[in-house]
């Protein structure tokens, strides 16, 4: 069973929270999503009761335990960028999903990094197909 770390914007913007929730539900068919809370609409409300250091320590434990990292990078987020950089330093396999849009460009630090697999998509079904192909190619369906 794979341990999957899903990263998506939280404080950078919650416009894609519903998409995150659907992608997380899909990813659960492949393993355990350690960061299932990223798709929760009430996340910001829930996390206000945690200290910043508690959030950091919790997320770092999950990142270290992950077999692979999947990041939805359409909404710019300092936290997601940090998680990607740390995941790379930890030797994790990383897949980034990016949905191009008007007035939106993917950071060159993500798009130009040969250690990352980056794929563009237009909708959830396409994202799920890309995820399934990547997970099955490198890990086999569990």
Give the helix/strand layout.
Layout: E1 2-7, H1 17-27, E2 31-33, H2 43-47, H3 52-65, E3 68-72, H4 78-89, E4 93-98, H5 108-111, E5 117-120, H6 124-139
Parallel strand pairs: 1-2, 1-3, 3-4, 4-5
Helix pairs in contact: 1-6
How would you describe what is shown here?
Helix content is 44%, strand content 17%. It has 142 residues and is of the alpha/beta class. The protein has a single domain, classed as Rossmann fold (3-Layer(aba) Sandwich). The termini are close together.
Descriptive tags:
single chain; about 140 residues; Rossmann fold
Summary?
With 142 residues, the protein is α/β, with parallel strands linked by helices. It has helices at residues 17-27, 43-47, 52-65, 78-89, 108-111, 124-139, and strands at residues 2-7, 31-33, 68-72, 93-98, 117-120. Strands 2-1-3-4-5 form a 5-stranded parallel sheet, sandwiched between helices.
Low-pLDDT stretches: none
CATH class: Alpha Beta
Apparent shape: globular
> Strand percentage, roughly?
15-25%
Structural class: alpha/beta
Helix-strand sequence: EHEHHEHEHEH
The helix count comes to 6
Number of domains: 1
Which architecture does the CATH hierarchy give at level 2? 3-Layer(aba) Sandwich
Mean pLDDT: 90
Radius of gyration over C-alpha positions, nearest whole angstrom: 14 Å
Question: How many β-strands, per DSSP?
Answer: 5
Order of strands, widest sheet: 2-1-3-4-5
- Could you describe the largest sheet, including whether it forms a barrel? 5 strands, parallel
What name does the CATH topology carry?
Rossmann fold
Termini separation (Å)? Answer: 6 Å
Helicity, as a percent range: 40-55%
């Amino acid at each position: 069973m794979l341990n999957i770390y899903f990263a998506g914007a939280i404080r950078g913007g919650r416009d894609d929270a519903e998409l995150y929730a659907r992608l997380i539900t899909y990813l659960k068919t492949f393993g355990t999503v350690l960061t299932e809370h990223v798709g929760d609409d009430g996340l910001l409300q829930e996390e206000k009761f945690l200290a910043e250091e508690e959030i950091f320590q919790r997320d770092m434990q999950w990142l270290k335990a992950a077999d692979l990292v999947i990041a939805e990078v359409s909404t710019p987020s300092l936290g997601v960028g940090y998680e990607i950089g740390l995941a790379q330093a930890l030797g994790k396999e990383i897949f980034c999903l990016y949905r191009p849009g008007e007035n939106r460009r993917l950071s060159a630090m993500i798009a130009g990094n040969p250690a990352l697999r980056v794929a563009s998509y237009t909708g959830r079904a396409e994202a799920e197909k890309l995820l399934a192909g990547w997970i099955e190619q490198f890990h086999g369906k569990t």
